[in-house]
Amino acid sequence: NLRLITISVLVVLITVISITLFYYELFQEQVKRGLRTEAKILSAAGLSGITENDEIIGNKEIRITWISEKGEVLFDNDANNLGNHLNRPEVKEAFEHGVGESVRESDTMNMRTFYYAILLEDGTVLRVSTEARSIINVFLSASPVVFLIITIIIVLCIVISNLLTKLLIEPIKILADD
Questions:
Q1: pTM
Q2: CA separation for the pair 129, 63 (Å, rounded)
Q3: Secondary structure of 76-125 as H, E, C letters
Q4: Is residue 62 exposed (0-12), middle (13-18) or buried (19+ Cβ within 10 Å)?
Q5: What is the reported pLDDT for 83?
Q6: How far is it, in rounded angstroms, from Cα 68 to Cα 75?
Q7: Starting from the edge strand earliest in sequence, which strands make up the sheet with 73-76, in order?
Q8: Taking a C-beta distance cutoff of 8 angstroms, is the pair 64, 126 a contact?
Q9: What phi and psi values does residue 107 have, to the nearest 5 degrees?
């Protein structure tokens, strides 16, 4: 019983961890692709009227930051009075190569912030960012379901192993009786 339960629990844990890691990688790529698309759409639409657009200012899912050549924040839809952004990795990369990406981990909130910056024709940089759950957060949110599955598997293993034991022992009992 114990061996069957141990093997089953290990298989479930390895499967859950593997699938979570695989899908989390896919999820991160999807978030990055979405940010690239947002940045390209915003840069193509132009930023001249961005500060008057209440829909963009009110959208807190995507953070939009417009940065001057000197690193000063010209516009940010989520914060005011921000410091110089010239040393931010994605901004620095955008000024050097035309585009830049980075991901920063928030230890306190178990969140990851994805950044994408693009150099505009006027020499400024448009940076968009969004937050997504960290891999630890994903594991923690999935843990109740995983424990439920493990519990069900343990119960099934006990029932199946008892049945198998009875099936194996039955012919021996018949031989002993004869």
A1: 0.71
A2: 5
A3: ECCCCCCCCCCCCHHHHHHHHHCEEEEEEEECCCCEEEEEEEEECCCCCE
A4: middle
A5: 83
A6: 9
A7: 73-76, 63-67, 125-133, 111-119, 99-106
A8: yes
A9: -70, -35
Q: How far is CA 64 from the centre of its chain?
A: 20
Token pair belonging to 137: 């957060």
Q: What is the pLDDT along the chain (178 residues), one digit of tens a residue?
A: 788 788 888 888 898 888 888 988 898 899 999 999 988 888 887 765 555 555 555 556 788 888 899 988 888 887 766 788 888 999 999 999 999 999 988 766 778 899 999 999 889 999 999 988 888 787 788 889 888 988 888 888 888 888 988 898 888 888 888 7
Q: Which two tokens stand for residue 40?
A: 């390209």
**Residue 100: exposure state from Cβ atoms within 10 A (0-12, 13-18, ≥19):** buried
The pLDDT, as a whole number, for residue 51 is 53
d(CA 100, CA 114): 11
Rounded distance between C-alpha atoms, residue 27 and residue 137, angstroms: 14
